Amino acid sequence: MAKGKVTIRSVDALTAIKGDAFLWDDEVSGFGVKATKAGKKNFVYQYRMGGRGSKTQRWTIGAYGQWTPDEARKEAKRLGKLVDVGVNPIEDKRQRDRAAVTLAFSAYVKTFTKGYLETEWGTSWEQAKRQLEMHVTPHLKEKPLPEITAADCNAVLDHLIGRPALRRNVWAVMSKLFSWAEDREDIERAPKMATPPTVKRRKRILSPHELIACWRASYELEAPRGALVRLLMITLQRRSEVAAVPWSELKHNEGVWHMPGERTKNNEDHLVPLSELARTELDAIGWKRRGLALPSSTGKTPVSNFSDMKLALDKAMLPILQELADKQADAAGEDRHEVELEPWRLHDLRRTGTTNLQALGFPIEVGERVINHHQGGETSGIRAVYNLYEYLPEKTKALNAWSAHLKALVDGDALDTNVVSLASARA
Description:
By secondary structure, this protein is an alpha+beta fold. The chain has three domains: 2-85, Integrase, DNA-binding domain (Double Stranded RNA Binding Domain); 105-183; 208-426, hpI Integrase, Chain A (Orthogonal Bundle), CATH 1.10.443. The chain has helices spanning 8-13, 69-84, 89-101, 105-120, 125-135, 137-140, 150-158, 164-183, 208-218, 225-235, 239-243, 276-285, 306-332, 348-359, 364-370, 381-389, 392-411, 422-426, and strands spanning 2-4, 21-25, 31-35, 41-48, 56-63, 250-251, 256-259, 270-273. The strands form two sheets. The chain has a five-stranded mixed beta sheet.
């Protein structure tokens, strides 16, 4: 059995005449190279699990040419450390293969979605899944979870520095994914990411002109996105709740939308009075007994792709805002000026509506009930039903007043502008 330094020269010189020929390294115990009569040469590592009396096992590191002697020697040292602590390289290979397939980050997102997000993340689980797929997977790709470091995660978050709210949300769902993986013992320890700063509370409220422009621009969106925007404005409910509303929740005869707790952020059942303006929108869609009120093109999933929808909405709003500003300047005898649309989000419609409710004379607690911000606490039986209907009259009055105010704005009754009416906008 030949022994010596495994180098390029010694491997090239190794030949097999009758059977396999071996050259064992004199530096790293168990490391060597095997040559066959066919001329193939592979680096190998030979070891025992359990001392002298145990069976000798041999592990093929890889072919000469694909591995250099130095690379193979380094791998042999790694395998030797595993053996020293009682880990069989064969089992280590199985775990590494598993990590490369089931623990690859892109694959694990699907596991995490099914095992946690869908059941524990509330109505925003789809949004959390999209955040992982859009902002994390393109960076981490197929990298196995056990190999992902804090530096890897921080690099992902660094790409979102200019979007603080999104950065904070992505950090939250990433943190949960890794802690969930740790609880399942898929990884030994979750990487410790730097916590992004808390996002300052948003105060964006749309002006009357912006509300008019938003309403009118919504008719330029593809169906059912325009109806989605208008129902968001009228009902003041969350985007995810409106987009995924099934007809079964909308009670035509009662004039209410009964949203079950499993679809609300606070897990509380919620009654939303349907104003005349809301019912008019639903009439235009066409009431049905089952299915989604605002389906995507497939008819089976809720309307989505909100980013593109919002871009199209903003683009359509700008010339309307300019028209309104020009008319207002002309009426006041002032010079016209170019307008800009300050950045806003669909969620700002809720804040705008509740702020207007206070201006219309409704107390804060009514506005909070309208948007389902109250914490109902644990209730059951008759008490739970009572809590659900407790503020229904006040909410009905509030949303009716808000719809009337919104209609007056769009019809031009609340501003000195010749704005197209709701009826004309529908035509």
